[in-house]
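Onboarding guide, step 5: your first structure request.
Type a short instruction followed by the sequence, for example:

Predict the 3D structure of this protein.
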Amino acid sequence: MHARYTLALAALAFAIPSSAYAADYPPKPAVGPTKPYTVPASESYQLPNGMRVTLVPFGQVPKAVVYLAVDSGSADEGANTGIASLTAQMLREGASGRKGSDLAAAAASMGGSLQVNASQLQTTAAIGVLSDRTADAIQLIGMVVEHPDFPASEFDRVRQSFLRSMAVAKSQPQTAADTALAAAYYGADSPYGRVFPTEAQATAYTIADVQRFYGDNFGARRARLYIAGQFDSAAVKAAVERTFGSWAPGPEARKIPPTPRPGPKVILVDRPGAPQSTVRLAFPAPVAGSANDIPFQVMDALLGGSFTSRITRNIREVKGYTYSPFSYIDLNPGEGRWQFDADITTDVTGPALKEVFGEIRRLQTEPVPDDEAKGIRTWIAGTFVLQNASYGGLIGSLSQRDYYGLPANWLTTYVPSVLAVQDSQLGQLARQFMPLDKMTLVVVGDLAKVEPQLKALPELRGSQFERVKPF
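The system replies with structure tokens like these:
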């Protein structure tokens, strides 16, 4: 009965002229002015040992997020690639004499799960809990990060899991492209240019290597604690002091600036028979907090960084060359990189890149219509407000502000700064930062089919094509 009723309604809908619907609805209202974004009030202070704390009481749901960021990641590894990730995994395996399973059970009893991860720049530990367990969550995170046991009995299992994950990742063309791009753009001798250890290197790591990395890179002076949500401020402050007040200061915080080596470069990785080509295209980008930082973000969103971007409309919606092209800005200390990613059908790899280059050139040479620029500015502003309406999103923005040394009022001024970007700045930034004769291009695919397409592109004529094996 239900299926027949649905079909009958569908048939009726097709029988009614579309004009009948138009007559039933008033005109779509005009988009109103953007409302000011009010950042939730926060309190920041520093413990005597150098650890920094930020408390953000806001929201209506009786929950809180506790997030600890330590300025230690793969950029600090030196030649010991992968040891930061192994250290992060071992932090969860036991602390203060409690097993990893006990730590996980404790987190579950608070209404959350403990997450510990290492990135290029930081190691983070986070948990979302019910409000009345916030003090307990602070104690749990402190236990894990401040008093890890690094049980030797668990290390072989963790290392084997790391090796399996690494093997799976290396089988993916996207990983091959990212690895090749990192080595080409930053150099294989840079911590930013090395993504994976060799299997022999990872197999040779011992628990002593993990302990050494932790001792060299963890401590109160490199740590910042964020707590956002509904919580008892006095109880939380007392728990912070009780948990972290005696943590040794440890090493001074440091930021290791990369030394990028931008193009022109065309890097190729062969995957015979691949149905798609995995593409990475990179250019230098403005440094976080610089005068061009926010205008360049608007330019990126218009060009490739949003679902309605020019590149997406062109090669996904109109041409159908790829399903999910996108661009973004990757920031490091003192350096930024614009990157475009796509998986493109093998037979149209060349035509797709021709369109991408064409969109970059169009942005560089033709004025951006005001309605298009206004639309993308409004989208960025709205997305920023929505992102920071959640506890995790707000903590992410605060952490970014603090890591890159942005002004204290950065969140407050972000939306007005976006809306103040001039249409003319977008083309100027594309010309300044994205000259096509300085690109770094990586293509992973069936080179027998793809390389002739690339060599036929005017933008790549005369470029030196280098074949590499990323692993």
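Each response can be followed by summary notes, for example: Residues 1-22 have pLDDT under 50 and may be disordered.
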